[in-house]
Write a structure and sequence with these properties.
Blueprint: H1 12-65, E1 67-68, E2 76-78, E3 82-90, E4 96-105, E5 109-113, E6 118-123, E7 127-133, E8 142-143, E9 146-148, E10 155-161, E11 166-172
Antiparallel strand pairs: 1-3, 2-3, 2-9, 3-4, 4-5, 5-6, 7-8, 7-10, 10-11
Length: about 180
């Protein structure tokens, strides 16, 4: 009489293969989640940097739109590497105050320096070149210097040189006087 024995369970090799496949799945899942987390962190950092630069550009636009030249405000002093002017700036208390500010590159960034404060406008800027618009129209000319005790240019063009690119900003000025 022959007896048939039925085996129950797995062999050692089958268990080792199952553990190896399970370990690979867990390892790949961990690497996938780590990559997603790192990508999210980079994206958030880039978004924060872009938001800060956009807010700084809006601040600069507002400062140039409320610019004053001449009289008690003083002159508009624009050169290729910096510009200095008087403007009305919104204060933390909610009121506007007349401030003289200078825009230039300092410590690898475009900054606005006033009498009592400094504001970082753009980071990682190696050089800046300002150009000033003389007149409106198709044949308009940009000049590299505008120094006037009574007037301001129509617009300012900024070329910001960074390590990987050159950005150009075109900013309008409210009026000439």
């Amino acid at each position: 009489m022959t007896s048939t024995t039925t085996r129950r369970g797995f062999t050692l090799i089958e268990v080792l293969i199952a553990l190896t496949i399970g370990s690979l799945v867990v390892l790949l899942a961990h690497q996938l989640f780590a990559a997603v987390t790192e990508s999210t962190r980079h994206l958030q950092s880039a978004r924060t940097r872009q938001d800060a630069e956009r807010l700084a550009t809006r601040w600069l636009e507002a400062a140039l739109l409320s610019l004053e030249a001449g009289g008690p405000a003083g002159p508009f002093d624009g050169h290729q590497e910096r510009m200095r002017f008087t403007t009305w700036l919104l204060q933390p208390g909610g009121w506007m105050e007349r401030r003289t500010i200078e825009i230039s590159v300092r410590n690898s960034g475009l900054v606005a320096v006033g009498t009592d404060q400094s504001k970082a406008l753009q980071r990682d800027v190696h050089t800046v070149e300002f150009d000033y618009l003389l007149e409106p129209g198709a044949q308009s000319q940009w000049v590299q210097e505008w120094v006037s005790p009574v007037s301001a240019p129509l617009a300012v063009r900024l070329r910001l040189t960074r390590s990987d690119r050159v950005d150009t900003l075109l900013l309008l000025i409210k009026g000439r006087g």
